[in-house]
Each structure stands twice: as structure tokens, then as C-alpha cells.
Amino acid sequence: MKRVLLTFFFLVTFIGFSQDTEDSAVEGELNATVVNAQSGFPMVSVHVINLNKVVGTITDQEGRFTIPAAVNDTLYFTFLGFKSEKVRVTGDMFKFEGTEVALTELAYALEEVIVRPYQLTGYLEIDVKNLPINNAYQYSISGLQKSYEGGNKSPSAVTKVLGAILNPADLLRNLFGKKPKQMRKLQQMKQDDDIRDLLASKFDRETLTELLQLEKVDIEDILNNCNYSRSFINTANDLQILDAISSCYEEYRVLNRR
Length: 258
What we know:
The chain is an alpha+beta fold. It has eleven helices and nine strands. It has helices at 2-24, 91-95, 124-130, 155-166, 168-176, 180-191, 193-200, 206-212, 216-225, 230-235, 238-256; strands at residues 27-36, 47-50, 55-58, 64-70, 74-78, 85-88, 100-103, 138-139, 148-149. The strands form three sheets. Strands 3-2-5-6 form a four-stranded antiparallel sheet, covered by helices on one side. A three-stranded mixed sheet has the order 4-1-7. α5 (168-176) packs across α11 (238-256) and α7 (193-200) packs across α11. 22% of the residues are buried.
């Protein structure tokens, strides 16, 4: 009787292990559909990103999409006015057709909006004087083609720029040395047109934090230490932020080889 039980448990364990191994080995083109959670209607032009493979696509007129994926990859769905969703890929998504991902519409509580905060008159000469001025100064050094943003005009800003130029390797090593995996994704992100198109339309850093696995404060810290002004950090779209981080990282890689 004991031998029978042992044989039974061995077979169950072996079958379960084989099933897990088979599921984890599944990889290929994943087909699915994105729908509105409230209406059930398919959603067009939803951005879908595989965070593991750093590739993206968008849904077609029927809400369908195809993307390279493997079991346990994470897909990130984003669409204006809807809550972004992360979905883990399972083996069943490859085995069965008709997989649907539902996005939930965000409920916005509208507050009072001031349409004319600067009291514009319609006369260009007058309105130009009333608009806020970007006080971020750029510093350049003779013989160097690149200019550096140092924020507000002050002695500390000059010191900050000089410190970055005279000892850039130490500065950049502190920024990127502990994040090699995240930074390696930069080139992959820049090469994917769908991801670049998505980032060009976003200003919330949400997609960047998901792709790079960095917090917003880390992104701001990188840009601050790479001598980008507060004005740029606050107003740039996510693609500009990506390009800024990438430029700084490429400089780090060059200096790190020396």
C-alpha cells in the first residue's frame, strides 16, 4: 500500500513539474484584445508594452494586438483617460484564443479652472511682458561644444557645472553604476518606434518608471546631477526625458572605459 501511495505522489509531482516546465517554456507572438471595462467595446490605439522585452505595439480598429512575449512577462497597457494596467502573461493566453484585457476609465473630479491666469489682453507686445520668464541659465566654456544648464544664476550653479565637467566620471558613476540593468534598457526603448511615440505624448513619467524600474525621484535626481534645469525637468515630455537620461548615460559609458 505504501508503495502504491509513493508511486501515486511521485506521478502527481512529476506531472505538475512537467506542466510548469512546459508553461514556462512557452514563447512567441501573443494575440489578445483590449476592451472598455464599462461598455465591453474594443479600444483602438491602446499602447501595449512588454516591459521584459522592451517592445511595444498598439491595438487596431478591432482592439486586437500582437506582441512578442513569453510566460511570466509583464505587459503594460496605457491609454489616455483610462487607468494603466499591468498583466502577467500566462500559458493559457497562448493556448486559448479570445484573451481580453479590460481597461477602466478614470473618473476625474473637475476643479475650478482659471482660463486666463496671466490676464492676457490679445496684444502681443503687452502679453509677452506679462508671461513668466524661464530663468534657467546655460553655461558654456571656450573649446567645449556642449553647454550646461545650471538652474538659477548663482555662484553654486557655476560650481555645479565645473564639478560635472572637471570630474564627470565620479558624478556619473554614482548615478548609473548601481543601475546597470535599468540603463541597458535605454537603447532598446529608443529603438522601438511605438514606445517613442507613446513617450512623446506623455508628461507624467509613469511609463518611464515602469520601463526603467526607477522611481520618479530617481529620474529627477539623475537629471539634476546631469545639469538639466528645473524648468526642463518639469515641462519636458517623457521622450525628451528619456533622451536626456540616455545622453547622460552614454557619456558615463565613454568615461567609464577610460
